[in-house]
Design goal:
The chain is an all-alpha fold. The protein folds into 2 domains: about 80 residues, no CATH class; about 180 residues, no CATH class. About 75% of the residues lie in helices and about 0% in strands. It contains 12 helices and no strands. Helix 3 packs antiparallel against helix 4, helix 5 packs antiparallel against helix 11 and helix 7 packs across helix 10. The protein is elongated.
Length: about 280
């Protein structure tokens, strides 16, 4: 038996409820090859994959086959929706932690930074104000782009079946409006913006300066609070592991932190808290 005929028999076996003819199976095989073609940048959501499959099979199946196919698809939809709902329940702990972290930023850490008016003003005095405003304008564009990405990706993959996950994602986004995420912004930025950021970064005060020591102290406060949250929400959950990226070298982490503070906006860039 040739490889092609063997593959067709495999297709007929996978769709055995439909009793596909060899000709139908051959066309389904072409669809599967197209669906599964490799790409490093594009992939179907479960919903899109089912829609694509339906768009192909509706032109191939007879009335009886179509009735069986629709019943099969209905069961797949039901199972996938149940999976999304159940999976979303697992986000409750993370959502509570994110809410508490955001409240800490909003009500404790950021006010403690902004209340020291002299130090906060001194931090940016050594830089061209127009360059900082340029970065802040681009950071605001980044925030809008990232929020749109969150919404598009969420509804593409989850539709309306994972509200806890959506709320958590938007709350994390709001946290990056309160306290800018310089590292994420730098990865997103175009080359001219990176060049301006790199210039300002090269002019940051020395690690031993009074200004740097004050703000790095705030970084350590933030890290200590994050550790408290980790212990509070996860230490008693058996088998639960919270993924964390590899820590940055201390000097790079400190510079990213001070760059984040240079981008800090007292009005959270116009974004509202998530109720």
């Amino acid at each position: 038996m040739s490889m092609e005929k063997e593959e067709i028999k495999f297709v007929q076996a996978r769709y055995h409820q439909l009793n596909l003819s060899p000709e139908q199976a051959e066309k389904v095989l072409l669809f599967e090859n197209m669906r599964d073609s490799r790409s490093h940048t594009h992939m179907f959501s479960a919903w899109e994959e089912l829609d694509f499959e339906y768009s192909v099979l509706k032109g191939l199946l007879n009335e009886d086959q179509m009735a069986h196919y629709q019943q099969r698809t209905k069961e797949i939809y039901k199972m996938h929706i149940e999976h999304l709902i159940e999976q979303d329940k697992a986000n409750e702990t993370s959502a509570k932690e994110t809410r508490e972290k955001t409240d800490y930023l909003k009500n404790i850490l950021i006010p403690s930074i902004l209340s020291d008016v002299i130090r906060f003003a001194t931090l940016s005095m050594g830089h061209d104000r127009s360059k900082i405003e340029y970065l802040k304008a681009n950071y605001k564009a980044f925030l809008h782009d990232r929020r749109k990405q969150i919404l598009v990706d969420h509804f593409r993959y989850n539709r309306t079946y994972a509200p806890i996950q959506l709320r958590s994602a938007l709350l994390r986004h709001y946290a990056s409006c309160l306290l800018p995420d310089y590292a994420a912004f730098e990865s997103w930025a175009d080359e001219p913006t990176k060049a301006v950021a790199g210039f300002i970064r090269s002019k940051l005060p020395r690690r031993t300066s009074e200004i740097s020591e004050f703000y790095i102290g705030k970084l350590n406060e933030s890290k200590a609070f994050s550790q408290q949250m980790k212990e509070k929400y996860y230490q008693d959950i058996k088998g639960w592991h919270v993924w964390a990226p590899e820590p940055l070298p201390e000097e790079e982490e400190n510079k990213n932190w001070i760059m984040s503070l240079l981008l800090l906006d007292v009005n959270a860039y116009g974004f509202e808290d998530i109720d």
